[in-house]
Write a structure and sequence with these properties.
With 79 residues, this protein is mainly alpha-helical. It has two helices and two strands; from the N terminus they run ββαα.
């Protein structure tokens, strides 16, 4: 779990950070199961990692555009 120190030096968890960390862990496990490898793999060159990141960023941009389109089409409705 993610911890931060408060002014009283008591360790506290941030539930939002905990959820994100858990999602990272779940995603990692799904990737290991699906692809049979981890991010520590050595068969990728830097250019391969950058191409993967670029593809993910392009997907993200498309998801944003689809969401924007839906909001604009439906007015102020955000669901």
């Amino acid at each position: 779990m993610w911890y931060r120190t408060s002014t009283a030096d008591n360790l506290q968890t941030d539930p939002i950070v905990d959820r994100v960390i858990n999602k990272f862990h779940d995603r990692s496990q799904a990737g290991i199961k699906k692809y049979g490898t981890m991010l520590t793999r050595t068969d990728y060159e830097l250019i391969d990692w950058l191409k993967e990141a670029q593809a993910e960023a392009m997907d993200w941009a498309l998801y944003c555009e689809a969401a924007i389109n839906r909001i604009q089409k439906d007015g102020s409705k955000t669901t």
